[in-house]
Specification:
The complex is a heterodimer of chains A (322) and B (553). Chain A is α+β, with helices and mostly antiparallel strands and 322 residues long. Helix content of chain A is 60%, strand content 10%. Chain A folds into two domains: 198 residues, Multidrug efflux transporter AcrB transmembrane fold; 86 residues, Alpha-Beta Plaits, CATH 3.30.70.3220. Chain A starts with 17 loop residues before the first helix and ends in a 22-residue tail after the last helix. The chains are: A alpha+beta (322), B alpha+beta (553). Chains A and B meet through helix 4, strand 5, helix 5, helix 7 and helix 8 of A and helix 9, strand 18, helix 12, helix 14 and helix 15 of B. Chain B: This is Protein translocase subunit SecD.
């Protein structure tokens, strides 16, 4: 007996309430964007500059004690969080201390780090500093720029690729879905105030890639079906295409999620934020490829009367394979 | 029908075998690593029986490239340094002052007396006694300019002189500053590299980044502070004429002179001429040694030009003191007793043996031409790295197992084929990573886990398509063929788009992000290869053997 996530034949009407779905997505995007504007992201030192110190001791972490030890140094905003992870040993108590960038210093000051380490060692004798990372304000400013640029470039490159392989309506649909995914991911990071660092940008771009993967598979089928059923309305053809690829969409999402959840639970706390972004992205990406990308495509319509030219709805580049 | 030619089959299996072979050393990581280290040691001359034995742990005819572990997995230190290229302009201009002075002196009748004025770093302002002699003075100064030796700067000279009233302003030309920047960076890179090599650590990464930055990653080192101590010390050695010795820290100095403290005696300062007679750059060798009283010292030797200048200077200035200046501190200021022709000398001071050893190393490696400021530093403890590897391993294995089970449950025998392809896929990724010498980082492991999830996608696309084609009941062979044919366009489009994002990540990203982009990108390549060729070949081979009347996917 085979495991089936869904029946072999599905005939779900995905566009029956397309205005509702598009409305919900638009609302979510607005909420996500609003949260980003109002609350802002909890930027890690990669983007904001400053120092993080990861400490480990056999004694339980007492944030108050840590804070009191560091406070006299007058280093401005300090955040101390205890880190929990199922993989830790019994007496492995880990905390993250974050210190803001000091003044307008371009470079990283070793003195500050030494002072903090000294102060903590005085109150917690067996404390060890597992990792120390400092980023100067100059670099962090550049990192945020390149990161934003990377996301924009990736979306633009994809826009062009899909436009070449399909039609501009497909490209717009796909990009609408991508923007939707990126905004929702940034939104969830700002809403939950999860630390947003360089690795999250990598996750964002992967989400872009993944969501696109899904969208393209649906579009590819739509292109095929548009050639096959020249006279059926676009809405029906799109709906059929989604239904036909639904089994694959879910299979891939589930296998990817299985892998990601394993990493989330067992992969350690260092990459947990990163994996969380990916899990969220896979879910949102799967949703958006059906309810955003295809809906936008439906809304924009596709030019189907190519009688003067050869073939269905593809461009001349579309026939190089398949 | 389902036909794949013999040579094609051989090629596909050959490629898979090659990938597996390249990946194999990673399965015996520690052993191969020790063996590689021993082989390297033997190559540089340490041909001991122990090294031979360790080298023999891994057969030499086998591939021995390993995946490099990134800092976040192995532990170590990471620094991003910015080279203060402007420092060099200042030194350059200071060095040219004696030359200009000596060139103008014979023309005293035309230009009058020549005096150096205070000026911004990187420019020289010179007052001449006779403003009317400005044209002649400029001519002489410009005559000292040398052509710039670069492609872009062809035709221009290194210094630009302009005159206003009785003041000549000399600066470096734009072409020369560019050339200087380039040279400074190359020199800094080289010196940083040599200093780190002197300490003898494994596989350091020393890379240029952008116009004026150096990225330094050293695995296995205790902390970024330690690394900074190794590369950050300038060890700028100069021999300068001493003007006077004083105990007043606020002594005012004239242009072209500076006040530097003594290294040993607190409260003692020397006023010295800024332009050095000889510098550490003229050194060819420096060795730790002992002076005649048995105190630790450093012996040094100049190259021929340095030796000549030092010899001439000592011959002309017998009886006057000169200062041995190290990083703007006077180590000692002996009085020249006699002409020193041989070009070698000894630095004595209150050193201990370790200090002299370090000083000799630093002097040999040469001084950094400009100061480094550190924009970014990261220390990752080895235990955090080990924990991450452990966690990554477990997570990958669990993810792997879950996906394998899920695929078999969903697609039966075909799922099993996909699983074999998946295992091959992971091996291929490791094989590729090792052969291109890529670095595996923690996000890189995440990239592999993601590939595990996504690699099945291409197979899923094909299998779902075969299922559909089976419904139109054209027989299993035709269904398999059509399944592959029709799924190909979706597979390619989907993977090319993901690949585009991986490439952008690689180009724009740095450090760990780049590691992720590499594994993701390679994962896409190998998963398309395994899905389109390897699984198909397995299915075709199975089909030929069994010839089933009907298949269930």
């Amino acid at each position: 007996m085979r495991l089936k996530l869904i029946p072999q034949e599905t005939n779900v009407d995905f566009f029956g309430r397309w205005k509702l779905w598009l409305g919900i997505s638009a609302l979510m995007v607005v909420i996500g964007f609003g949260s980003f504007l109002l609350q802002g992201l909890n930027f890690g030192i990669d983007f904001r500059g400053g120092t993080t110190i990861r400490t480990q001791s056999t004694q339980p972490v007492d944030i108050g004690v840590y804070r009191d030890a560091i406070a006299p140094l007058g280093l401005g905003d300090i955040s101390i969080t205890e880190v929990f992870d199922p993989s830790f040993e019994e007496d492995q108590n880990v905390a993250m201390v974050r210190i803001q960038a000091q003044g307008d210093e371009e470079a990283v000051t070793t003195e500050t780090i030494e002072a903090v380490e000294g102060a903590l060692s005085a109150v917690v004798p067996d404390i060890r500093f597992i990792s120390v990372e400092s980023v100067g304000p100059k670099v962090s400013g550049e990192l945020i720029q390149t990161a934003a640029l990377a996301v924009i470039l990736a979306i633009a490159a994809v826009l062009v690729y899909i436009w070449l392989r399909f039609e501009w309506q497909f490209a717009l649909g796909a990009v609408a879905a991508l923007v939707h995914d990126v905004v929702l991911t940034i939104g969830v990071f700002s809403e939950l105030q999860i630390r947003f660092d360089l690795a999250i940008i990598a996750a964002l771009l992967t989400i872009v890639g993944y969501s696109l993967n899904d969208t393209v598979v649906v579009f590819d089928r739509a292109r095929e079906n548009l050639r096959k059923y020249k006279n059926r309305p676009l809405k029906e053809v799109l709906n059929l295409s989604i239904n036909e690829t639904l089994s694959r969409t879910l299979m891939t999402s589930v296998t990817t999620l299985i892998a990601l959840i394993a990493l989330f639970v067992l992969g350690g706390d260092v990459i947990r934020g990163f994996v969380f972004a990916m899990i969220w992205g896979v879910i949102v990406g799967t949703y958006s490829s059906v309810f955003v990308a295809s809906t936008v495509l439906l809304y924009l319509g596709v030019k189907r009367d190519w009688t003067k030219q050869d073939g269905g709805s593809g461009t001349q580049f579309a026939n190089i394979d398949a | 029908m389902l036909q794949i030619g013999f040579w094609k089959r051989l090629f596909i299996w050959g490629l898979v075998a090659l990938g597996l072979l390249l990946a194999l050393p990673n399965a015996f990581y520690t052993r191969v690593e020790q063996s590689n280290d021993a082989v390297a040691a033997i190559e540089i001359g340490a041909d001991t029986p122990e090294n031979q034995a360790v080298a023999g742990q891994w057969p030499s005819w086998m591939p021995s490239s390993l995946v490099n572990l990134g800092l976040d997995l192995r532990g170590g230190a990471h620094l991003l340094a910015e080279v203060q290229v402007e420092d060099v302009y200042e030194t350059r201009m200071q060095a040219s002052w004696p030359e200009i002075r000596d060139a103008l002196r014979p023309e005293r009748d035309a230009v009058g007396t020549v005096r150096l004025l205070d000026s911004d770093p990187g420019t020289l302002r010179i007052r001449i006694g006779e403003a009317s002699g400005m044209a002649r003075a400029l001519e002489i100064v410009r005559g000292l300019a040398r052509p710039v030796q670069t492609l872009t700067g062809a035709g221009s000279t290194d210094i630009v002189a302009s005159g206003q009233g009785d003041v000549i302003t000399v600066t470096l030309s734009d072409a020369e500053t560019q050339a200087t920047d380039e040279r400074t960076l190359q020199q800094s890179l080289e010196i940083v590299r040599r200093r780190i090599d002197e300490v003898g650590t494994r596989e350091p990464t020393i890379q240029r980044q952008g116009a004026d930055r150096i990225l330094i990653q050293v695995p296995g080192i205790g902390s970024a502070a330690e690394l900074k101590a190794i590369i950050g010390t300038t060890a700028q050695l100069t021999f300068n004429p001493v003007i006077t010795r004083t105990t007043d820290a606020n002594t005012s100095v004239g242009p072209g002179e500076k006040l530097v403290p003594s290294l040993d005696e607190s409260g003692v300062f020397y006023v010295i001429e800024t332009a050095a007679v000889v510098t550490g750059e003229d050194l060819v060798d420096a060795q730790p040694a002992f002076d005649q009283n048995g105190g630790p010292a450093v012996n040094f030797r100049f190259d021929s030009t340095g030796a000549r200048r030092f010899g001439d200077y000592t011959a002309e200035n017998i009886g006057s003191p000169f200062a041995i200046v190290l990083d703007d501190e006077v180590v000692s200021a002996p009085v020249i007793q006699s002409h020193i022709p041989g070009g070698s000398g000894i630095i004595t001071g209150r050193f201990d043996v370790e200090e002299t050893t370090n000083l000799a190393v630093l002097l040999r490696a040469g001084a950094l031409p400009a100061e480094l400021t550190f924009l970014e530093e990261r220390t990752i403890g080895p235990e955090l790295g080990a924990d991450s590897i452990e966690a990554g391993k477990i997570a990958t294995m669990v993810a792997f197992a879950a996906v394998l089970v899920f695929m078999v449950l969903s697609y039966g025998l075909f799922g099993l084929f996909a699983n074999i392809a998946l295992i091959i896929n992971i091996a291929l990724i490791f094989g590729l990573l090792s052969s291109i010498g890529a670095t595996l980082t923690l996000p890189g492991i995440a990239g592999i886990v993601l590939t595990v999830g996504m690699a099945v996608d291409a197979n899923v696309l094909v299998f779902e398509r075969i299922r559909e084609e089976l419904k139109s009941a054209r027989g299993p062979a035709r269904a398999i063929e059509l399944g592959y044919e029709k799924a190909l366009s979706a597979i390619l489009d989907a993977n090319i788009t993901t690949f585009i994002t991986a490439v952008i990540l690689f180009v724009m990203g740095s450090g760990p992000v780049r590691g992720f982009a590499i594994t993701l990108g390679l994962g896409i390549l190998t998963s398309v290869f395994t899905a389109v060729f390897v699984t198909r070949l397995m299915i075709v081979m199975w089909y030929e053997r069994r010839r089933p009347k009907q298949i269930e996917v």
